[in-house]
Amino acid sequence: MGSLWGSTCECRNCEFWFSSHHSHGSYRADPPMGGYFYVVCAHCATEHMVPTRGARGPADGERMELCAMSTEQGQVRLQGSGEYLEFYELADAATWSDLFTLATTACPACCEQGVLKVELHAGDACPRCKQMALSCDRMS
Is residue 58 part of a domain? Predict the structure, then answer.
C-alpha cells in the first residue's frame, strides 16, 4: 500500500505543488480537527482540505467533508462544501487512493465526478497547466 507519509509533487512549468500526506496535530482551526490532508481535482486543479477526527488519519468508515480554507488573523477557517469522502480500511487496497470513495465523489469547484486525487505520481500530467509531467519525491 502507498505510504501514509506520502510524497510531494511539483510542476516545473507552472509551479504547481501538492503534498499527499496526512498531517497530525492540527493548528488553530475553526472548527477544531484532529488532523487533515488535501485533495486536488485533476480537472480544475482546485485543492480542498479534508479534516479528520483522528490525529493519525481517518478511521474506518469515517465520512469527511471537503473544505475550502482561508486564514484570518492567524486562525484557519474552513468552509464546508457539502461534498464528502469516505474512508475504508481495505486489506486488498494497493494504494492510499484505494481507501477513499474518490470515484463517486464530485469536485465541489467544477462538479466533475471521479477526478479527485489524494495522491499524485511522477509522470502524471500537471492538474493546473496540463502541459508538463509532474516530478515527485517521497516524504520521510
Answer: yes
